[in-house]
What does this fold into?
Amino acid sequence: MNVLIVFAHPERHSLNGALLDVAVAELAAQGHEVRVSDLYAMHWKAAVDKDDFPALSSDGPLKVWKASHDGFAADALTPDVKAEQEKLLWADMVILQFPLWWFAMPAILKGWVDRVYASGFAYGVGEHSDRRWGDRYGEGVMAGKRAMLMVTAGGWPEHYSDRGINGPIDDLLFPINHGILFYPGFTVLPPFVAYRVDRMDEPKFTILADQVRERMKTLETIAPIPYRKQNDGDYQIPTMELLPELAPPGARGFEVHLAPERD
It folds into this structure.
């Protein structure tokens, strides 16, 4: 299996860096081929601007989706973006690894998504009609590939529980799991989350490292998050609202997009 890890932490000699080493070593021991995009080490450019689209007229307005679409279609995106797109096409499994900062991913990783997920590559693909609304949410270029988040958080697991003050971790990560991974077609695995990482001593790290190794061993077998596919008949087109009879009584928000029958 080809595994791409997109690593977003500014300090390589950190807990995240140590967990990356553990994951890479375990994957290699299993015979997988691993590539790492270390965004800070690469000095990844996070902000989208006109420099991303060399073929764009310098005096014209920037419509990112159109410039992205035209640049991708003409093979005229910047070399750094094209290199990351090639890695995504090469990978069978993609892991986004990052610390949870202000309830989201670091800006550099969001910038990787903004620039690499070009129109025509990760979105804006497929037929748009009264029967389909494009190839997305379970379909698309990344269909058949698996993906997962590996996240560190300073708070306690109770802080991210259903009644925790920070909100359920699955809700906080929904925009990434569902909107960034499932949208272009990835089969999304449950996230691996490490809590209370600022209080990690050597015995606790040993336990955590073993948990990372175990997760790396199960990437091909662990059951994915059972998100509903857009074009399987669960949603009304073109409003893309879940059919009323499919939502459990009282269910609302993110949970309605899970299909319990697929557990």
Observations:
- The longest helix spans residues 202-217.
- The mean pLDDT is 92.
